[in-house]
Design brief:
Layout: E1 4-8, H1 14-23, E2 27-31, H2 35-43, E3 47-48, H3 52-56, E4 61-64, H4 69-80, E5 89-92, H5 98-110, E6 114-117, E7 120-121, H6 123-129, E8 132-137, H7 143-150, E9 154-161, H8 165-193, H9 198-205, H10 213-216, H11 240-257, H12 262-279, H13 287-291
Parallel strand pairs: 1-2, 1-4, 2-3, 4-5, 5-6, 8-9
Antiparallel strand pairs: 7-8
Bound molecules: nicotinamide-adenine-dinucleotide.
Nicotinamide-adenine-dinucleotide (NAD) binds at residues 8-14, 31-34, 37, 65-68, 71, 75, 94-95, 120, 123-124, 237-238, 242.
Length: 301
């Protein structure tokens, strides 16, 4: 059954996700503050809306893909709740803190909506291909409907638990990602100093026990994985500023829960340094160039 989807936030991730909803035959009412993002969505079959309120007014499903918690809280509390029909299913796919996710869920529920936090994993390649993994926090009876709505963008959808649980799972996942990417970059830097070819290193590690998603799908050295941002000078992809945001969320959650995360803390400190040097807009795998002492070869934006 085709539906009317309101899609808010058409950036690196949301652009591809909205396009896949349109490709599935849904009517996609799209909005972003950036005209460029909106024009790109229109070229992929979405209908540009003049505001969030206009995008959501006849929606069966509202999907948001925004940078961080403050954007999500503002857009839901001021522009979606009350403007969308109460029959609409509200899905926030951004990565944000658990407390804000629960707060937005409470506001939505009080106003009569079904809401889920549904952050994603897989990066821009999976967003474009419709093969993201979704981690959902929702009321149990709503899950089947949520899974159906996410289907055009998904390879796997998991209910992690009640509201906030999707974000908790995502924060843990991205702490692993930050640590494995940093480990991969350090190993490439060491391999280079030892006279090894980083491309040959890929061939070896991809088939050895150092293998991870950071290696096989996102290798930070150009060549072996043609779709990885390393092949386009680390343009687009997953901004280092976003990775830093997620690592901070993990450290905040660890402090509150009493979990021991020393590698997470060290990874956050290194991404803090990289961002502080002005590279927050580059893909996070560009941190390789900081470790190699080659930042002079990396454009800042
Ligand atoms: P992005 O900055 O490319 O896109 C965010 C978009 O939101 C921008 O186009 C911006 O103009 C728009 N926006 C901001 N405020 C808005 C508002 N008030 N109304 C309408 N539009 C608004 O970011 P992204 O890389 O697409 O990431 C989005 C979310 O997905 C983040 O929470 C990020 O942590 C998460 N995420 C990103 C990746 C990745 O690989 N890029 C992977 C998984 C999860």
């Amino acid at each position: 059954m085709t539906q009317t989807i309101a899609f808010i936030g058409l950036g690196n991730m949301g652009g591809g996700m909205a396009a896949n909803q349109a490709k599935a035959g849904n009517t996609v009412m799209a909005f972003d503050l950036s005209k460029e993002a909106l024009d790109r969505a229109a070229s992929h079959g979405c209908t540009p809306a003049a505001s969030v309120a206009e995008a959501v007014k006849t929606a069966d499903v509202v999907i948001t893909m925004l940078p961080a918690g403050p954007h999500v809280l503002k857009v839901y509390s001021e522009q979606i709740i009350g403007a969308a029909p109460t029959s609409a299913l509200l899905l926030d796919c951004s990565t944000i803190d658990v407390d804000t996710a629960r707060k937005v869920a409470g506001l939505a529920k009080d106003a009569g909506y079904a809401f889920a936090d549904a952050p994603v994993s897989g990066g821009t390649m999976a967003a474009d291909a419709g093969t993201l993994a979704f981690m959902v926090g929702c009321d149990e009876p709503d899950f089947a409907r949520i899974e159906t709505a996410l289907e055009p963008m998904s390879r796997a959808t998991f209910r992690a638990g009640d509201h906030g649980a999707g974000q908790a799972a995502k924060i843990c996942n991205n702490m692993i990602l930050g640590i494995t990417m940093l480990g991969t970059c350090e190993a490439i830097g060491l391999a280079e100093k030892l006279g090894l070819d980083p491309v040959k290193m890929f061939d070896i590690v991809a088939k050895s026990s150092g293998q991870s998603w950071s290696v096989t799908t996102y290798y930070p050295w150009p060549g072996p994985v043609p779709t990885a941002p390393s092949n386009r000078n680390y343009d687009g992809g997953f901004a280092a500023a976003m990775m830093l945001k997620d690592l901070k969320l993990a450290q905040d959650a660890a402090a509150k829960s009493g979990a021991s995360t020393p590698l997470g803390a060290q990874t956050e400190a290194l991404f803090q340094m990289f961002n502080g040097l002005g590279y927050g807009g580059r893909d996070f795998s560009a941190i390789l160039q900081m470790l190699r002492g080659k930042l002079d070869e990396l454009p800042k934006s």
